[in-house]
Amino acid sequence: MGRGAFQENYGQEMAIFRSRGQWATLLAFLVLLAVCPLFLSDRVLTVMTMIGIAVISVLGLNILTGLCGQISIGHVGFMAVGAYASAILTARLGWPFWAALPAAGLAAGMAGLIFGLPSLKIRGFYLIMATIAAHFIIIWSVIQLRGLTGGPDGMAVPKPAIGPLVFNSKASYYYLVMAIGASAVYAAVNITRTRAGRAFVAIRDNDLAAEVMGVNLWTYKLQAFFIGCVYAGVAGSLLVHYYGFASVDQFPFMDSVWYLGMLIVGGMGSIAGAVLGAVFLKLLDEFVTVLGPILSAAVAAQAAASLALVSRGLVIILFLIFEPRGLSHLWGIMETYWRLWPFSREEGE
């Protein structure tokens, strides 16, 4: 909102974009994303594609953990479900990619419903342990089903295609991921505005009070698991089709921890926070990758190799101590300052 702008009715208050400036900013950002392949290298496009896939996955985790308060550290396991569902449907059964992608999301969502059942009886530390167990159960199942998944050797996955259009270049796959990512962000924003989204927040804040007010915990907790895992399944499908190969090594347990770290850095319960956190930590990884060879010449190579883990962990700790509400809160402060300027003043004046 610009300076001096205000809402005149409830519809304007609930609108996602409430001013011409916001619409212009969105249009400029979409145009910038569209022209990126014209002047960026394949390496940079690869980084942006990986960021887009991470954003989709973290959005699902934000719905489950940030909005509904159901802490999950098995998110990457559900990405594996979607990845292998899409791989089997396209490579074994000959399904087209446009049909396999939503099917992969549904398969991961169904897995989320199954492993979300314990959330009806347990919470906190015990729920964390249940989601960790879910990750290892899923990975074990993938390895054992050798006939379908290729077991520990993995399986080849065809490049995605929609009709005659084959996404076999860095630029074309970048456009595919960005289109799906933008749709995922739009859907997530609207989910928070629905009755279910408000129920998720009520459960997160106090599930006993929510139940007293008439919120069906059984229904909405399972809905949160289903929706969050659908996002994870779509992200997993995009990941394996990008590499053209599906392997359990692409879904390590530690990635689930880092996805949760992205939520902490970006801001729990915020769609903007999920996006900002994923972008920030992914760019941090790339910065460390570039800085590693330089440091290895100055210090021990082993120290430089562990820099990525140390830097991510240090950033998460610093945010937990100094800004637990994440980057989205900092962005909100800057927005408020701009909206009130030049009448804003320092605290205490």
Note down, in words, how this protein is organized.
The protein is mostly helical. It has a single domain, classed as ABC transporter involved in vitamin B12 uptake, BtuC, CATH 1.10.3470. The chain has 16 helices and four strands. The strands form two sheets. Strands 1-4 form a two-stranded antiparallel ribbon. A two-stranded antiparallel ribbon has the order 2-3. Strand 2 (161-162) and strand 3 (165-166) form a beta hairpin. The longest helix is centred in the C-terminal third of the chain and has 28 residues, at 271-298. It is globular and about 65 Å long.
Global geometry: globular
CATH domain topology:
ABC transporter involved in vitamin B12 uptake, BtuC
Strand content: under 5%
- Name the CATH class: Mainly Alpha
Largest sheet: 2 strands, antiparallel
The Cα radius of gyration reads 21 Å
For the biggest β-sheet, the strand order reads 1-4
Oligomer: single chain
The proportion of residues forming helix, as a percent range, comes to over 70%
Helix/strand-derived class? mainly alpha
The CATH architecture would be Orthogonal Bundle
Contiguous helical run count: 16
How many structural domains? Answer: 1
Overall mean pLDDT: 88
First and last CA, distance: 25 Å
Which residues sit in consecutive blocks of at least 5 with pLDDT less than 50? none
Q: What's the order of the H and E elements?
A: HHHHHHHEEEHHHHEHHHHH
Q: What is the number of strand segments?
A: 4
